[in-house]
Amino acid sequence: MFARVVEPGSTPPTQIHRVGQVYRIWPGAAPIDEPVEVALPIPPGIEDVRRVHVYRAGPSYWTCEGGERRGDRMVISTQRFGAYAMMEDDKPPEIDRVVVGGENGVTSNRPRVCARITDIGSGLADITVTCGGQWLLMEHDPEQGTVEWIRDE
Questions:
Q1: Is 136 within 8 Å of 113 (Cβ atoms)?
Q2: Which has the closest alpha carbon to 113: 142, 135, 91?
Q3: How far apart are CA 129 and CA 127, in angstroms?
Q4: What is the mean predicted confidence (pLDDT) over 110-116?
Q5: What average pLDDT does this structure show over 92-121?
Q6: Long-range pairs, 29-36, Cβ under 8 A, ≥24
Q7: Where are the alpha helices (DSSP H) in the chain?
Q8: What count of other Cβ atoms lies within 10 Å of the Cβ of residue 143?
Q9: Hey, how many other C-beta atoms are within 10 angstroms of the C-beta on 15?
């Protein structure tokens, strides 16, 4: 296994803030039977390390691989080589297209409630929705990028 620093232009663009270097670990096509740990140095000047995660470059986008802070390193366990970088998820999720009711509007005391939710960073750890101080059980569909109130009548 070998690693080297590569130019950011040789990896996909990102919409979140990359911190530190991009490291390519190769040979990229090598089969790995057991997970290996990859430890990247945490660069100085990061305000909140809890928002920093390790990302792996794909053909056209980056995927969050997570990470655990150990001293001055961010460590992941992986069975894939490739290009890795740390990025700071400093953008909150966005909620839009909130729909209450169906095609005919609100027709009951328990209307359908759904919204589109997107997060370009490390993803959503938790979704909590309340209405009038009452917690609503929501179903999250990450593939569709939606949350919908599950009517428990």
A1: yes
A2: 135
A3: 7
A4: 84
A5: 79
A6: 30/1, 30/81, 32/78, 32/79, 32/80, 32/81, 34/79, 35/77, 35/78, 35/79, 36/1, 36/77, 36/78, 36/79
A7: none
A8: 6
A9: 10
Residues 6+ apart with CB under 8 A from 38: 25, 54, 75, 76, 77, 78, 84
Which among 2, 36, 17 is positioned nearest to 120, based on CA atoms? 17
119: amino acid identity, one letter? D
Of the CA atoms within 13 Å of residue 6, those in its CB half-sphere come to 17
- ∠ CA 39-80-52, rounded to 5°: 40
With 0.85 as the threshold, say if the pTM is over it.
no
For the cut 60, the answer to whether the pLDDT of residue 27 exceeds it is yes
* Phi and psi at residue 59, to the nearest 5°: -60, -35
Secondary structure class of 9 (helix, strand, coil) = helix
What residue type is assigned to position 63 of the chain? T
Q: What is the mean pLDDT of the chain?
A: 85
Half-sphere exposure of 149 (CA within 13 A, CB side): 19
Catalogue the E-assigned strands of 58-137: 62-66, 68-70, 73-78, 82-88, 94-100, 113-118, 129-131, 134-136
